[in-house]
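Job type: complex structure
Entries:
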Amino acid sequence: MSADNMHIKLKVWRQSNSNTKGDFENYSLDHVSPDMSFLEMFDVLNEQLIEEGKEPVAFDHDCREGICGMCSMYINGRAHGPLKGVTTCQLHMRSFNDGDTIVVEPWRAEAFPVIKDLVVDRDAFDRVISAGGFVSVNTGNAQDANSLPIPKIAADEAFAAAACIACGACVAACKNASAMLFVSAKISQLALLPQGQAERTIRAEKMVAQMDAEGFGNCTNTGACSAECPKEIGQENIARMNREYIGAKLSSSAV
Amino acid sequence: MATSSSLDAKIPQGPIETKWSKYKSSVPLVNPANKRNLEIIVVGTGLAGASAAATLAEMGYKVKAFCFQDSPRRAHSIAAQGGINAAKNYQNDGDSVYRLFYDTIKGGDYRAREGNVHRLAEVSGNIIDQCVAAGVPFAREYGGLLSNRSFGGTQVQRTFYAAGQTGQQLLLGAYSGLQRQVGMGTVKMYNRHEMLDVVNIDGKCRGIIARNLITGEIERHGGHAVLLCTGGYGNVFYLSTNAMGSNVTAAWKAHKKGAYFGNPCFTQIHPTCIPVSGEHQSKLTLMSESLRNDGRIWVPKAKNDTRPGNEIPEEERDYYLERRYPAFGNLVPRDIASRAAKERCDAGYGVGSSKLAVFLDFAAAVERYGRGEANKNNIANASKEDITAWGKAVVKEKYGNLFDMYKQITGEDPYEVPMRIYPAVHYTMGGLWVDYNLMTTVPGLYALGEANFSDHGANRLGASALMQGLADGYFVIPYTIGAYLAKEIGTGKIPTDHPEFVKVEKEVKDRIDTLLSIQGKTSPELFHRRLGKIMWDKCGMARNEQGLKQAIMEIRELRKEFWRDVKVMGSKDEFNPELDKAGRVADFIELGELMCIDALTREESCGGHFREEHQTEEGEALRDDDNFMFVSAWEHKAQEEWELHKEELIYENIKIAQRSYK
């Protein structure tokens, strides 16, 4: 396709703040290049709005290379749009057709209130990590890094879970707004590594308790979270988290 | 511009091997009861900020941490790909603290401070220990021990990594430590807050003014020390590998309040980035330097060869890095690889539609690894197809996420055709001038990580940014801050109703009102693009006197136009990314001017700073050690007016030579 010749119609969610009601607004863009990223298409929209004296659309974004987890658009009913294993910032307009109408909404979940337009508040994730998503080791206490060999398979599996970028797509994609994929990724990473063993049970208990307190829903094994996850975090992590949690509950009553 | 006396970096006396250990044993301590009453403000939560905030809180200080993102975990350290260096010598290939020290000084083209760099090399091993203990899943060998690879400018394998997501894994390790302290109440975290000024009282830094980016509220925060861990300023070029939000505002405000700016013109252009595809481009994406372990860089021997890379026969290819630098080949340092790519493209050998790209080719690595797999499995007569398939599988395991990213952005499959790459702005070696304690020229105000200028000289080696960020935060500042805070135990709580807080807060508010009241015709984004073009054309990979002088005039005009014609939508009492951007662009414009002045006064070439007037016959950077072996530290005097202070660089442990990678 030659450059800059797509015409795109947009239906974008606009909402001034968490206390007001939002609604869709329609926009039309000419001269969209298939090589543009989805967010660059939004840059063009915003420059057009500014020129017309209208307020640009607020959206979260930062690294634009798929790793910071900041971008968060719900595109045509799918978290991060139509492609598998891709964040919104890495989605390009060549994935759409000339003349398409694209509907863009924020993440929708009780635990992620809208701040403005497409921007939501994901502080709940930080609080879940604060509850137990760490190894309690103060700086300066570590032994030599090679003193404890870790089988490559365990290390690789822990890494695969640790690849989570906490974007919240799992929550947005889930009909129950469950955060289990996010929480289980961190619990799995640390449960698979020897360094995580000392706090293994208390971690599972505390993180799950915080997850519930934040108002995230429960898991009904639909699998949408993993299917829509831009880092393709596997559903087996949820199974592992459930095992960790049940095991913890059987042996302790700390939480 | 005036020039004044030299600066004292406060480097401890004694032999280089014992400076840091002696310093640690003699630095004043603060007892636990007093630590509880001392407040430290940490701005920025990347590797340096998160590790510093967590560690200082563990030690018992009261910490407040700030980030402009919605979570500390999103700081741009997260995007670092290839790895982190440490002098562990796990590969038994002759590595040592001295070698890492030497490689870093040489890589920086003899413009870094010996004392700091040796300390960095000394603590590098502790960083890996700490990260592993915190659950960072580094790559491992089948025996369960840590794996290493090579990076540019070294001949040993000392780079630890986690696939192509090393920065992510290290940051998440530091972030989890930080969140642990947040949960314990020892760190108060302020997400979506931007520091808009520092407050100095009686010559000491006593706090900051920050804007709550959700509500627009302007807040005063007092502290006994302020740590700026706010990253680099590569976005002054508009297009860079930095995140969209990365900015110089915190460092620039500190500069205008008395902190000298060190070597602002030292910027790193990374050789392997995905080339610009069009006018709409908002940022550039790096392809990790680790790819040069296995990828071979080349251009066609004939000009204007438009055949796809995989259809150009071997004998018609020019592997120009291997040709020019046989000792280091494709693993020469970044500045050298970038200039060599520019040289080939300028000479007409570039590839792709823009002709501003060179090939990074994995075909040879695929074959080599494929044969290795065949040997490992005792298969004697493997078919070419099988070898290719096995080789691709090995390459996928090493670099899979990078290859996917490349394909997603360009629409081309790098397993089948060579990648097209071109240099792009990546990192800034310059930053706030700091002494050995990481303190700026304002007492109580510190700068850590990329925000300071200290360890990389005129060119940073790959995998050393992560090392420096974590060294500063985990292992340096926890000691050095004691030297200052030990004298602050009698100060008491910092009163934020002090007239100085009132005054600075008013300045911040007035500036916001001005930005919103201009209501001109041009968006902040367009000003940023124009600034970026001036900087890239005249203060980028190659610089000359005439261009720099012209750039300074153009930037001054641009600044005036900005304050006459900027159009900022929305209001100040709400979530308003346009207002945030306008403030950042205004600061970038002022910084751009200083960068050009610095580049103009440094009449030599060194590392990433290449003055066309100063090069060898072979086109290599030509230093002038007699006249320029110093750090340029600029003091802000007034609009368009700076005074140059010099810190002489003294090399007692390294023999100065022309940097050669041949």
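Summary: The beta strands of chain A are 6-14, 23-32, 74-75, 78-79, 101-105, 114-116, 119-120. The first strand of chain A starts at residue 6 and ends at 14.
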